[in-house]
Design brief:
Blueprint: H1 17-52, H2 56-59, H3 66-102, H4 105-118, H5 123-148, H6 166-190, H7 194-202, H8 207-236, H9 239-244, E1 247-248, E2 260-261, H10 264-271, H11 278-306
Length: about 325
């Protein structure tokens, strides 16, 4: 055959108006979140610059500068959020495993609905519950911890007579982030490849051993993502912390005393109505610090998740 075949031309599908509208709207929506994030960051940076060079008298502290003022607030924010995550994560994983692999279908659907409903409760309701119900309820437990475990530094010191301590705040925050972590972990565990679960059971594994070898390794990135979302909620919570905690701008690891480190968000909420001039810039600067902390926590979580390859398999 002397004549060569003509090269095949690529056939391009004609773009329909609906496809173009949908593609453009998705690009606009994705770009909009970046624009909003950048606008918030620029606003915080611009308004925070005067606070970085403010004197101790302008800030309202005895000595030091802005970083001396914000240091205890950063500590209180991280300390309360870490305690809440430490309490909420194991419980959330246990509830998610019970719903996805142990509970009957009707019980699992009812419990899942209750967990999702708990996420819709306003934070002010959690704050009122923390003051009126939880704080008086935990006082006997705090006395017992101080009496029997007072040798441990976290439980030493003079026990608060009101129960409004950093540990009470951590319990409230743990209840608040529990539905978020549980809902994400539940959906991740339900996505475990069925072949992996059946293979583990066929090799003689018990249900718990199957969960250890198949479900938890597959769901590890989801667990990390859920934990970081819950941590972000705890870091930025305002009303519940401001209502429950008896705040002090200090660094203290004591969990049961009346003097407790406050958080950045609660400090802004309590002091912003009376702030003026440089005081507003100082509070906005602390908000910028919280913005950076939250961004860094989520960035680290994303790096950890991306370093682990996805589990292979089919449902």
């Amino acid at each position: 055959m002397t004549a060569s075949a003509a090269p095949q031309q690529r056939i391009k599908a004609k773009k329909r108006p609906g496809d173009q509208i949908f593609s453009g709207s998705t690009v606009f929506a994705g770009s909009l979140i970046l624009v909003i994030l950048a606008a918030v960051a620029i606003f915080l940076i611009a308004e925070s610059l005067p606070a970085f060079t403010a004197s101790a008298d302008d800030i309202g502290i005895e000595a030091g500068n802005f970083w001396t003022y914000v240091g205890p607030l950063v500590f209180g924010t991280l300390w309360a959020a870490a305690l809440a995550l430490l309490m909420a994560l194991p419980v959330a994983i246990g509830i998610a495993l019970f719903i996805s692999h142990y509970a009957p279908r009707r019980v699992a659907s009812t419990l899942g609905y209750i967990i999702d409903l708990l996420a819709a409760v306003p934070s002010v309701v959690f704050g009122l519950w923390g003051i009126k119900v939880l704080a008086p309820l935990v006082l006997p437990a705090y006395d017992w911890l101080n009496t029997n475990l007072g040798w441990f530094p976290l439980f030493s010191g003079q026990v608060s007579g009101t129960g409004r301590t950093i540990l009470t705040v951590a319990i409230v925050l743990a209840v608040m982030i529990l539905p978020i972590i549980t809902a994400i972990c539940r959906e991740v565990f339900l996505q475990t490849p069925r072949l992996h679960e059946e293979a583990a059971l066929a090799l003689g594994a018990t249900r718990w051993e199957m969960i250890q070898t198949a479900v938890l390794p597959f769901g590890r990135p989801g667990i990390i993502s859920a934990a970081m979302l819950g941590l972000g909620r705890a870091l930025g919570e305002t009303m519940a912390v401001a209502m429950v905690l008896s705040p002090s701008v200090i660094v203290s690891f004591f969990l049961l005393t009346s003097q407790n480190p406050t958080t950045i968000a609660a400090n802004i909420a309590l002091n912003f109505p009376e702030a003026h001039d440089i005081g507003i810039n100082v509070l906005l600067a602390t908000g910028l610090v919280l913005f950076v902390i939250t961004f860094a926590v989520n960035a680290v979580a994303r790096i950890v998740i991306n370093r682990r390859k996805a589990f292979s398999g089919a449902n």
